[in-house]
Amino acid sequence: MDKEKGAYAIVELREAASRERALAQPQHALAGRSLRVRPREQKDFARPSPGRGARREPLGAGQLEQALCQAADVDAQMEQLVGLLELSEGERRLRHLLVTLFQEVFSEFFPGCAVLPFGSSVNGFDAHGCDLDLLLDLEPTKSLQTSARGAPGAGSSGDPGAEESILSDIDLASASPPEVLELVAAVLRRCVPGVRRVRAVPTARRPVVKFSHKQSGLAGDISIDNRLALHNTQFLRLCGEADKRVRPLVYAVRLWAKQQGLAGNPAGGGPLLTNYALTLLVLFFLQTRSPLVLPTVARLRELAGDEDRVVVAGWDCSFPRDAALLEPSANSESPSSLLAEFFRVFGDFDFSGQVVSLREGRALPLPEAGEPFKLGSLNLQDPFELSHNVAANVNEKTASRLGRCCRAAAKYCRSLQYCRKSTKGRGWGLARLFQPGAVEPGAGAGSFLISIPLAATRPPEQLCEEPGGCGFKEICAAIAFVLRDVLQCGCAPGKPQKQVGGSGAEQSLPEDPALGEEPPGDAAGLEEEPPQPPVGSKRPQPDGTDSAALPGAKRPRVNGPEEEEEEVAASWSCAVWHRVWTGRRRLRRQLLHGASPEEPDGDPLELEQKVSEAIVQHEGAAQPPEPLLRFEASARLAGGTQREPRVLLRLAPSPAPGPLFRDFFHFLQAFLPSALRRHLGWGPGAAPQS
After folding, report:
1. What does the pLDDT read at residue 58?
2. Is the pTM of the predicted complex or chain greater than 0.70?
3. Among 118, 503, 607, 670, fewest CB within 10 Å belongs to which?
4. Which of 37, 1, 45, 44 is nearest to 19 (CA)?
């Protein structure tokens, strides 16, 4: 082993006798340098059999939906979801073997150290592909170094501790965190088989070394000073074991948030919620039920025994480590009803005006959070490190979308599509809930809905009286313009569709005015939607209808809470040929930087059109043989005089939507409403983002 180069070698001898003679020598040297030689441990790592417990490939969106639709009810879907997403036994063994490998290697360089996994892999809420988070505990190594330096004759060749480590001449106690991180990164690069893409990140809130492992395909982090994370992991595991409803609820909420574009990888540094933040929101919600499903952190501290009392960096992390010591919950709500209530509670929650506290189990006024706590658009206090806002990265836009998506999900959870299994093979329950935009009012099966508010644009009565007139015609033409000219999508008049509402007869849709066809003049006005009855109450009869004069089978159907009157004004068949939703912010900055200051301002969307053209040019001006995405789009006016008027744009992808379409849909959700307002001169709006 070479201390200067930080490397070691494995020497294979021809005969076992030669190996024994070499090991019998008390001292070894090479070019005048003392070497530490010891027998190589032989470890047999059994490969998982292809049967039960072997590594599974993650299910695609279509496979997941198909599997969920086979369940008997939503409670069964939630239970099945855990089994579909959690790590298999083979995947757990693989991660354990990697931890063992890391422990073996790092022990050669840092005697007495411990490699401890934390986070998603071991907190009870694991999922396929989750990162392998590790803590390299160097405190025992520092203690050994201190003891060795204080011992008589320390550092001499006769001292057995002098050559205990290749890096024994490096004082870990005095080394700075960046220096230790670089040392850890060097060991990973040179000495751990299969590890690549090693990168030290000393500027992170918790400095880490990032890596990936080639054979397993796993990515991970190694931190050297994050003992709080170990106790957070144990706390989450305790909550998951305390009540069998906790894990299904957490898995359902996290997948829902991911599908709606609300959650992402914390390494990305964006304004999205992390899985840890979403898990804490679920646990907080369960602390607020009556009766409680989970105890508060303050109550757990009271239940902790002497062996469970821990203080880390000044923060009290005391709580029982054994779920059997907790009092059983008297709450009898089903998992499906808890999920519906979760959406209802957070649909109207004031995220920026109060602090979510798991320690107290209630929302705290902002002053009670304390001075070091960083307030933001969503205030979520860590259960132990009370000065840390777990959701500090979330911006106002994401927090607003979270509330809006929760309200739409809560409304969907009151419908029969959520509660009752479909007899026609359609998506129901969780399968439909997980589709982005599918639970927005008016979204059909397999479609995605974008709501474009028209408040403060022109009087609502003008829009409602002119579904086929100039006002609505302008909106439809603007939608086609943004898709076709600004985003460079193929956009052709769609096929005739059935009109929902009215007589129910099949009618042809007016073609896109932007494509040269005029819709019929003097079109009938849109019908106002009737006031929605409370959930569970009887639907009112239409005005002027004598229900007694109509046979039961002939009574007019009145739309319920989950249906709306539709007047489809236009439809288009669309194709997306280039990834026009990626890298727009960077290209926008480059184009603005290169523009002349004297150049007059042009069309508000001219810059966005140039950004799309630059993306197309970068990917190759020639049109690919097949588009990346295909979808049918249809626009209609909703609301009326009693509601805020809005245009609902429905996208129906073909074939079934995958991750690529979902990325495009989330981009279009943010980009399109702002682009329409700018194009129609209804106000500057926010600059389109991506």
Report:
1. 62
2. no
3. 503
4. 37
